């Protein structure tokens, strides 16, 4: 039909991004799908003639797209509990902002729905906004109940994420001696420049020699796994490495390389190997 996409996407629970993607694809191809199911004499054809249903579809495409963005931002090798808490707290605050917008019958924060509403000149936007408001409220309450302490973040660990913020020592929760060490560290211009070029974990490891106690406290907060990302990556890597044709392969060393973001020292590895000489 000359569409941008060649096919629809199917949802699978294993691929956690698929729900948002299929909703976006279905909304983009709604006219083509409507024509197809009309030819098939399907009862679902009436849905694509219902403006209220199309608005709900557009909203779901938008909200799942935002949830996908949140999920993707929380993936990665160098994530920690402090940064993940900040991302989740920010998303809950966004939900409250979206709620305020919808309460004023504005859907500008949902681009797909907003464009559809402008193009279709929806008459019952107030009804749609009531439905969205109810869903956003339940979503916010569900996240808050799942992460009960997320909105009452402990500010005493802010110095770990950035020890060079002004007045970071005022709420550090450290002893007097460690607070003095933190003030000394925060006043070091050379360390501040170094902090801008490395990750938070690398920074605290590099200053361990001079600020041992501060480094140990920081690393105790940064080391715990904030998500199951590494576990999921390991299973994915193993499924690619250990196929049915290599089912007796020991994948321990291969998995270490596959799930690590540290580049192997190939020169050192090759130097320890004896080259094969001709006989």
From TrEMBL:
Chain ranges of the HAT C-terminal dimerisation domain: 196-254
Name the UniProt record assigns to this protein: HAT C-terminal dimerisation domain-containing protein
Lineage: Eukaryota, Metazoa, Ecdysozoa, Arthropoda, Crustacea
An example molecular function term from Gene Ontology annotations: protein dimerization activity
InterPro entries attached to this UniProt entry: HATC_C_dom, RNaseH-like_sf
């Amino acid at each position: 039909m000359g569409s941008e996409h060649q096919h629809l996407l199917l949802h699978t629970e294993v691929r956690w991004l698929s729900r948002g993607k299929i909703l976006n694809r279905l909304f983009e191809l709604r006219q083509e799908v409507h024509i197809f199911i009309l030819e098939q004499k399907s009862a679902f054809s009436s849905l694509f003639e219902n403006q209220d249903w199309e608005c709900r579809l557009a909203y779901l495409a938008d909200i799942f797209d935002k949830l996908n963005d949140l999920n993707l931002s929380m993936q990665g090798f160098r994530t920690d509990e402090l940064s993940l808490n900040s991302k989740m707290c920010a998303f809950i605050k966004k939900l409250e902002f979206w709620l305020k917008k919808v309460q004023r019958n504005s859907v500008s924060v949902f681009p797909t729905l907003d464009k559809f509403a402008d193009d279709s000149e929806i008459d019952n936007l107030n009804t749609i906004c009531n439905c969205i408001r109810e869903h956003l409220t339940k979503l916010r309450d569900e996240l808050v109940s799942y992460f009960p302490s997320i909105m009452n973040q402990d500010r005493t660990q802010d110095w770990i994420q950035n020890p060079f913020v002004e007045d970071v020592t005022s709420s550090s929760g450290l002893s007097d001696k460690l607070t003095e060490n933190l003030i000394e560290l925060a006043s070091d211009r050379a360390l501040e420049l170094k902090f801008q070029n490395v990750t938070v974990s690398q920074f605290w490891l590099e200053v361990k020699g001079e600020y041992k106690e501060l480094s140990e406290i920081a690393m105790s907060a940064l080391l715990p796994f904030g998500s199951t990302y590494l576990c999921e990556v390991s299973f994915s890597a193993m499924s690619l490495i250990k196929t049915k044709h290599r089912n007796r392969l020991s994948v321990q060393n291969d998995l270490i390389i596959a799930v690590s973001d540290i580049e192997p020292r190939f020169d050192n590895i090759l130097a320890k190997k004896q080259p094969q000489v001709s006989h």
